[in-house]
Design brief:
mainly alpha; 3 helices; about 0% strand; flat; transmembrane helix
Length: about 90
């Protein structure tokens, strides 16, 4: 017995749990379209990756994407303008 009370059963349970989760994810990926469609029928909409054609988006969706991109650009510009100085505590 170790300091934390973790036994062989705990480790076995953890490993089995990780394996089952990995298998479930693999099965989900193989049947992604069917699972997402079934979830949509129940009112659960799974967000899709941005792989679609931008010309098919509504004006509102395009504006949201534009705002997100502008925010990211502003953050990157601020990071370039105001780099954090590196301090070396051993130099003192």
């Amino acid at each position: 017995m170790n300091q934390f009370g973790i036994t062989r059963d705990h480790v076995t349970g953890f490993v089995v749990g990780v394996g089952v989760a990995a298998a479930g994810y693999y099965v989900y990926l193989k049947n992604k379209e069917q699972v997402d469609e079934m979830l949509a029928n129940y009112g659960i909409h799974v967000p899709q990756a941005d792989q679609g054609d931008l010309s098919k988006l509504t004006l509102e969706e395009l504006m949201l994407k534009k705002e997100t991109i502008e925010d990211l650009i502003a953050e990157k510009e601020m990071a370039l303008e105001d780099p954090q100085p590196l301090t070396d505590s051993s130099a003192e």
